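Please annotate the following for my students:
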Amino acid sequence: MSEEQAQQLLYQMQILESYFADLMQKENYMISVLREATSAIESVKAVKESTDYETLVPLGLGAFVKAKILPNEKIVLNVGAGAALEKDKESTINYIEARIKEIEVALKETAAQKQEIALRLEQGKHEMNRLLQAERSQKQ
């Protein structure tokens, strides 16, 4: 085993470990967004049709303001790139459900990538052990 081979293998494994950590972060973020989207659907469904009622609207840093939700009002959806659309309740739910499906697909892809990287890392560890054992055998 040359020291150069060992260094190269070690470098590759460090890159894979970094990539694996990035995938974990991405997965955690998507899970968080998925929970938020599910909560949003539940909140939209909870909006009563016939009467207006009060709720608390978060302002940030734990500050809230009371607000009245009027019946049959449109819901404003942020659709990205600074754009927002007004939609009715059902259209809002359909839009969020479509985003949930996209997130679920991305989560599956990320899980597959993580599995592939984990396999490659395991192979790298085995290769490193094989190289170390070969070097020990040569020294004896």
Notes: The chain has one domain: 3-45+74-139.
